[in-house]
Write a structure and sequence with these properties.
Length: 514
Amino acid sequence: MARIAVIGAGMGALAAAARLAVAGHRVAVYERTDTYGGALRRFERDGFSFDTGPALLPLPAVYRDLFVKTGKEPLESCVDLVQVDPSARHVFADGTEVSLPNASRAGVVAALDEALGAGAGQRWGDFLVRAREAWDRTRRPLLEEPLWPNWQVLAEREPYPSVPHKRLLRTRRAATLAEIGAWELRDPRLTALLESHALGHGLDPRLTPASAAVLPYMEHAFGTWYVRGGLRELARAVHERCLARKVEFHFGADVTGVLEKDGRASGVEFADGSVAEADFVVAGVAPAALARLTAGTVVRGDGEVPPQPAAASRLTVLLALRGARPGGTAHRTVVHAPDREAELEALFGTAAGTRRPTVTVLRPDDPSSAPADHEAVTLTTVVPARPGRSHDDSADLADLADLADLADLADLADHMITVAERAVPGLRDRLLWHEVSTPDDIADATGAPGGAVPVPALAAGGGRLLHPANGTRVPGLFAVGGWAHPGGGLPHAGMSGALVAGLIVEGPEFRGSQ
């Protein structure tokens, strides 16, 4: 029985802890904040309850597997998991609207044909067939297996089988999501639908490799799911499973260093100078934080994946509304930006001016989220992370630029409420109060610099969207969670826990889940 110290209590770390405890190891989790779950937080006020992090669950099989492997009670016995149908309602810039059925190719094709015109559904359906090929080619190496030592193969080969595009005397194939939209979908509304899956992760579709076609495919093939009571309930269930497996939790434990002895990890050191010895250390922190914990030992070097582009963050607005949620209301509505190029330049380029972004409106059919005859609504949009800001920055240190940024975010939050009226008629008349969650709040919850949110690993693109391997240069030290392979998102974080547990239990010969 090995002693294992886990730094952080995010979902990847919790998944690793539960699996390692079941394997017979003594596991202790040390979390800087006063609670578990990482980004899966909840805000409550006046009987209203909101998710402030991820609010929908794709690919629930990852967590079903976790519960099967760590105890007798399946996931559905621990949380009320429901499929969201329609998967999403989209409101496009030209006023066209379409509701897409959950996990139904024929239903999606018919809905798109009816809303966008004959042929639109077929083009989207054909795209999903090609996206499935990309998924089949990358599912194991980018989700179910440790990062390949020859990861360059994943970085250089584009798995998406794009359609040849002839223009003048040249034949080209789509290499980015934007090119798929322009050359294969050939409708600005279908392009907006496609690119919304990249934007939702803070990725610029003009630069994101075509392999990101797997993102809409995952939603189409495996459905979109909600946990009644909010996704925080999933974190609660995983935490309780850890407790049932005798995992120890220490909250308010600020780990400041990883100890080494005889060339391998031997424990952790805390801010008060105390230490906890361990045979293995599992770190669920961002790369910069891991480098600080190891005095710079764990950094990228020759033969390791290249640095990722700067990650984006989220701005979330929580709305308390009088009046009940109307029957038949879509759980999720995506209100697309009126000007695609302006949105992309404002978010990823150097253009200044007022942002008019794509806004996602979440209206769960969940009586526990609001008092009777009231409704809890959540709005989200992607914003740049706040460079230089971290969880341990004092508000007293905010300079004028910080204050200006916060004022801009307040203006953006008000604009988001205006945009949301396209999805919630009469919203302002129903509004009792609202709260805003900023990138600084994400930084406080997760420790990620600037409130950055990690993206899932994707193939091609020169490896820019691959994540560091779960094993590190320090023997006995492993990286878990959204900042390590296989990247961000709830399914990927859960799989990172499975991969780390496998590497510790079975050793370097571990080749992934079967």
